[in-house]
């Protein structure tokens, strides 16, 4: 395993998880966020995850110690970025905001630093175009929560270099990932396929085909999905799914991504899923 210095930008749900698995791999990891309280929360969650892992025998006590000793936090990524081998971005899902960040990062980093984005649907090519070295930009799509879900969806643009891809594969291997490589296209593989099922389940509920529980049980028991599409939508958040549906409907022009009326209504009513206490289920 090569020594790596990783900077993660954004310490929300995803950034903290990505930082955790990088630190567990023994990488020197700096987790950064504009918000000090996001960093404080992230450290609490990471430590709790590690403690739970040790208690369940999934994490060796030594790995917990390594992770905590390798991890540091900062409110300004500009200080850490110049020493990074890899920067992984996990900030808000907004193309302009991400493009601005990548433009700034490409001014700060070394000439061989890899820049990964954790976007779940946006164009990696458009993000790369904001930088001086698009060949070093790549999609590094981790799944929530990263310490449990092992998939790493790697997204390559027409300009991503082979060296960049190989370096990300090495990070994936060190952090215990199972990897797939996908060409940059709207929704990649995971969001595009997952959304079709989720939106169709919502349309079925809207049409009164079956209850939310029975639609979910259809996929859990009939197709061995660990979780039905409506419960999953509650966990992913309804507003997130609506935004991605709108984006895929617009970019792919395919009717199956047209947001169902029921989804639009629930989001407008503030029923956003587990985080708001109610989505398709009460939590
Ligand atoms: N939540 C998920 O299940 C999930 C899964 C896969 C991918 N993603 C993607 O990961 C990314 C992050 O999602 P999240 O759910 O962790 O978001 P989040 O809202 O939980 O966290 C985002 C964090 O980024 C910080 N931030 C925003 N702008 C910043 C900037 N310019 N510099 C530094 N910090 C900044 C915010 O303070 C916040 O703490 C998004 O692109 C999202 O689409 C999310």
Describe the structure.
- This protein has 283 residues and is α/β, with parallel strands linked by helices.
- It has 2 domains: 179 residues, Rossmann fold, CATH 3.40.50.720; 85 residues, N-(1-d-carboxylethyl)-l-norvaline Dehydrogenase, domain 2 (Orthogonal Bundle).
- It is 49% helix and 14% strand.
- The chain is built from 12 helices and 8 strands.
- An 8-stranded mixed beta sheet has the order 3-2-1-4-5-6-7-8, with helices on both faces.
- Helix 1 crosses helix 2.
- The longest helix has 20 residues.
- It is globular.
- It starts with a strand and ends in a 15-residue tail after the last helix.
- The mean pLDDT is 96.
In short:
The protein is of the alpha/beta class and 283 residues long. It has 12 helices and 8 strands.
Secondary structure elements and pairings:
Blueprint lengths: L4 E5 L3 H12 L3 E5 L3 H20 L5 H10 E4 L2 H4 L5 E4 L5 H14 L5 E4 L6 H6 L7 E6 L8 E6 L5 H13 L3 E6 L6 H17 L5 H11 L6 H8 L1 H15 L8 H8 L15
Parallel strand pairs: 1-2, 1-4, 2-3, 4-5, 5-6, 7-8
Antiparallel strand pairs: 6-7
Helix pairs in contact: 1-2, 1-3, 8-10, 8-11
Number of helices: 12
What order do the SSEs take from the amino end to the carboxyl end, as H and E? Answer: EHEHHEHEHEHEEHEHHHHH
As residue ranges, the low-confidence spans are none
**Overall number of strands:** 8
Content of β-strand: 5-15%
* CATH class descriptor of the largest domain: Alpha Beta
Structural class: alpha/beta
Helix content: 40-55%
Q: What would you report as the Rg, rounded to the nearest angstrom?
A: 19 Å
What's the name of the CATH homologous superfamily of the largest domain? NAD(P)-binding Rossmann-like Domain
């Amino acid at each position: 395993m090569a020594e790596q210095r990783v900077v993660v930008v954004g310490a929300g749900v995803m950034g903290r998880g990505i930082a955790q698995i990088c630190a567990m791999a023994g990488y020197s990891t700096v987790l950064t966020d504009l918000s000090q309280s996001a960093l404080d929360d992230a450290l609490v969650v990471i430590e709790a995850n590690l403690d739970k892992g040790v208690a369940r025998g999934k994490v060796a006590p030594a790995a917990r110690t390594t992770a905590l000793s390798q991890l540091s936090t900062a409110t300004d990524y500009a200080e850490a970025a110049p020493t990074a081998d890899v920067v992984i971005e996990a900030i808000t899902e907004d193309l302009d905001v991400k493009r601005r960040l990548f433009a700034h990062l490409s001014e700060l980093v070394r000439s061989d630093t890899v820049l990964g984005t954790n976007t779940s649907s946006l164009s990696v090519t458009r993000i790369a175009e904001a930088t001086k070295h698009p060949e070093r930009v790549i999609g590094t799509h981790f799944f929530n929560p990263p310490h449990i879900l092992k998939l790493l969806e790697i997204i390559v643009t027409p300009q991503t270099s082979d060296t960049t891809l190989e370096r990300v594969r090495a990070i994936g291997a060190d952090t215990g990932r199972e990897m797939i490589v996908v060409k940059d296209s709207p929704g990649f593989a995971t969001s595009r396929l997952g959304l079709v099922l989720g939106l169709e389940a919502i349309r079925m509920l809207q049409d009164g085909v079956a209850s939310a529980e029975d639609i979910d049980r259809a996929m859990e028991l009939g197709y061995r999905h660990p979780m039905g599409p409506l419960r999953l939508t509650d966990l992913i958040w309804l507003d997130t799914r609506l935004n991605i549906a709108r984006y895929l409907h617009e970019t792919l022009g395919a009717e199956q991504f047209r947001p169902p009326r029921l989804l639009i209504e629930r989001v407008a009513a503030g029923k956003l899923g587990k985080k708001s206490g109610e989505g398709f289920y009460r939590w």
